[in-house]
């Protein structure tokens, strides 16, 4: 089958298999977060140790996603998907039966080694299988998987943990993973063009230290503090390794991750907007539950329910925004979507101690609606400017930057929140002391200090949301420079590029 024939009749059945695999892999990313306290109690480990279940997963993703351009270019999509699903299934099975905590960490890392390939592989297949004028609709459906699965994870996890063992979280995913693997073995065929490339091991080492160091350093800053030598030392080492990695890639004829794709202005612009938007989006996913649970005292399950409509709206809107992108382009959608995001984020910065549950739900849902109009259209518009041979590098770059910017943005905004909370806590206590409002009894003093702490946290969260509003406004300014683009016709290779259809 050549590209022209495939564009006339895209392989929907095969893409459905990939969607199922990607959905369960993305769902698994956030499924375990609410279960961490339960696992900590069962295995008698410290919070700093149990955190490795998410940190280790994230680090493996941070190491493998930048290398995904090499894997997608060298190996057929069938071989790569089956290998990824096999690793994911083995890791999931190991997590169900693990007798100790160390093996559970290993299981999560094996899972991550499989899931890291899912997003880049699926995005590349979508870019090959659909013509430019229909890519928006296709990538919109992909957005449904990309955004909905991680968002419903905490809600589903909260309900399961209340009624069953944490092992059920993995037991629930395993049958779907095995079914997808078996089905793919018999039905999946190859459609992505491949060529012989070699992996530069030194580039892989630099990439692993660079992206892994930055992800780990920023992610642990909230726990260990920015003054910890381990935190800033890891970030410095990561930044230096990343700089060396970029310089090396620019000098190589066949780089592991091609930074020369940034010579395409719309791809560079889409990356900048996506980075800023990822910071705003991921920070809200942390700040909102913090407000709901720590300030308002609402249960984790109800906090998950509060965020669920936003996930559903984003999922439902992704295919719609994809079709709108095909018709109107990214610029108008991004301007409207970011305007909605800025307004709702600003109102989230005005939350009080008595803000209604459904009012918060409405703000969060409308905010996610706004983000759904921006992320995939902007990303697709940038990828559209790349020649086909650069697609693996474009998708790898986008996915890597999303991971890194999300981790960095969340860490920075949590630090902003913490610093504001501490300074306001001191100010409120001094004001109360000056007005003679400090209770005399130890019992009343403890209650009073808790009230001050809660009020200080509220003001810290509100201030972080205000900074997030400014960050989103920066993205809005960038969207005015978006232009609708298509890949160079000479690079499409409609008549020349053939794909291997062997099962």
From TrEMBL:
Keyword DNA damage applies: no
Keywords carried by this UniProt record: Cell membrane, Membrane, Transmembrane, Transmembrane helix, Transport
Topology with respect to the bilayer: Multi-pass membrane protein
Transmembrane segments: 12-32, 52-73, 80-106, 112-132, 139-160, 166-186, 198-218, 230-247, 267-292, 298-316, 328-349, 355-378, 460-482
A cellular component annotation (GO) from this entry: plasma membrane
Pfam family, one: MFS_1
Record carries keyword Transmembrane: yes
Signal peptide (UniProt feature, chain positions): none
Domain of life: Bacteria
Positions of the Major facilitator superfamily (MFS) profile domain: 14-487
Subcellular compartments: Cell membrane
Broad class of where this protein is predominantly found: membrane
Molecular function in Gene Ontology: transmembrane transporter activity
CDD domains given in the database record: MFS_LmrB_MDR_like
Family statement drawn from the similarity comment of this UniProt entry: Belongs to the major facilitator superfamily. EmrB family.
Protein name per the record: Multidrug resistance protein B
Protein source organism: Sporosarcina pasteurii (Bacillus pasteurii)
Gene name for this UniProt entry: emrB_1
């Amino acid at each position: 089958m050549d590209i022209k024939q495939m564009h006339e009749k895209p392989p929907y059945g095969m893409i459905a298999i990939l969607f199922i695999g990607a959905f369960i892999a993305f769902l698994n990313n956030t499924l375990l977060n609410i279960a961490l306290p339960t696992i900590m109690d069962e295995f008698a480990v410290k919070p700093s140790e149990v955190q490795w279940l998410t940190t280790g997963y994230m680090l493996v993703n941070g190491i493998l996603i930048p290398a995904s351009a090499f894997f997608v270019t060298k190996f057929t999509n069938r071989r790569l998907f089956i290998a990824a699903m096999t690793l994911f299934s083995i890791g999931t099975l190991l997590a169900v039966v693990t007798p100790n905590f160390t093996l559970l960490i290993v299981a999560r890392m094996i899972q991550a080694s499989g899931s890291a390939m899912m997003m880049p592989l699926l995005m590349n297949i979508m870019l090959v299988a659909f013509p430019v004028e229909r890519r928006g609709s296709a990538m919109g459906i992909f957005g449904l998987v990309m955004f909905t699965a991680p968002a419903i994870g905490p809600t589903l996890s909260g309900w399961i943990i209340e009624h069953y063992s944490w092992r059920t979280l993995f037991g629930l995913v395993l049958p779907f993973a095995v079914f997808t693997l078996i089905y793919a073995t018999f039905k999946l065929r190859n459609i992505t063009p491949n060529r012989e490339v070699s992996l530069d091991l030194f580039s892989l080492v630099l990439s692993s230290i660079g992206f892994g160091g930055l992800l780990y350093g920023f992610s642990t800053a909230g726990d260990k503090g920015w003054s910890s030598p381990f935190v800033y030392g890891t970030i410095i080492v990561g930044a230096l390794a990343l700089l060396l990695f970029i310089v090396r890639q620019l000098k190589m004829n066949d780089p592991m991750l091609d930074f020369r794709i940034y010579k395409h202005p719309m791809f560079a612009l889409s990356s900048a907007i996506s980075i800023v938007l990822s910071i705003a989006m991921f920070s809200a996913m942390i700040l909102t539950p913090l407000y709901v649970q720590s300030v308002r005292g609402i249960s984790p399950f109800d906090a998950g329910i509060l965020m669920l409509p936003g996930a559903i709206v984003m999922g439902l809107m992704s295919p719609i925004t994809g079709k709108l992108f095909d018709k109107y382009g990214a610029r108008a959608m991004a301007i409207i979507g970011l305007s909605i995001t800025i307004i709702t984020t600003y109102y989230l910065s005005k939350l009080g101690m008595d803000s209604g549950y459904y009012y918060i739900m409405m703000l969060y849902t409308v905010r996610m609606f706004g983000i759904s109009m921006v992320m995939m259209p902007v990303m697709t518009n940038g990828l559209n400017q790349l020649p086909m041979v650069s697609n693996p590098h474009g998708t790898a770059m986008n996915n890597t930057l999303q991971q890194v910017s999300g981790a960095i943005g969340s860490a920075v905004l949590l630090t902003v929140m913490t610093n504001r909370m501490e300074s306001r806590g001191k100010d409120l206590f001094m004001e109360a002391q000056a007005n003679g409002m400090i209770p005399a009894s130890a019992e009343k003093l403890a209650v009073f200090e808790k009230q001050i702490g809660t009020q200080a946290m509220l003001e810290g969260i509100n201030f972080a949301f205000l900074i997030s509003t400014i960050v989103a406004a920066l993205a809005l300014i960038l969207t005015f420079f978006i232009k609708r683009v298509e890949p160079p016709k000479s690079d499409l290779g409609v008549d020349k590029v053939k794909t291997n259809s062997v099962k």
